[in-house]
Specification:
With 174 residues, this protein is an alpha+beta fold. It has a single domain, classed as Gcn5-related N-acetyltransferase (GNAT) (Aminopeptidase, 3-Layer(aba) Sandwich). It contains 5 helices and 7 strands; from the N terminus they run βαααβββαβαββ.
Amino acid sequence: MTPAPRVRRATEDDIPGIRAVLAETWRDTYGAFLPPEAIERAIAAWHTPRVLAAELARASTFAAVAEGDTGIVGVVTARGRPEVVEIARLYVRPGAQRRGTGGRLLAAALAAFPGRRRARLEVEAQNAKGRAFYLEAGFVAVGERSVEVSGTALRLIVMELETGAAGDRQDTPR
């Protein structure tokens, strides 16, 4: 059996691997309901080395990767706000899903911001795998909003998790 990927804080050296995970998972996740050209435009604009490096350098941002034998298989980015951890992105390569990697990445993001009582995220309504993952993790829907991605309207479900003191979790790296 393959050992579980190791979750660790992301560095600038990880940017090529992060970009590869984001490109693969965006195509897999959103390909059923976004036109391919919209996905490619979003990837090209939102996942550039410059954008990712700026995120890694931001003091209020925590970014981690899950690294397995084949390289980076998952990524999480979170921001600390007063009382809330905002999960900006959490993606795991399709071939590495359903093995606990997403849960370990989520736990690392929550542990990175001790004292926050809630976690919040948005998930596309048509992203059945993502919604199921977050529901299984204890998130509940608290609202929704619409956004436009390259001319396509998307409905985002806002979800929250009551975390208690997130920094009290002992099962993840800091």
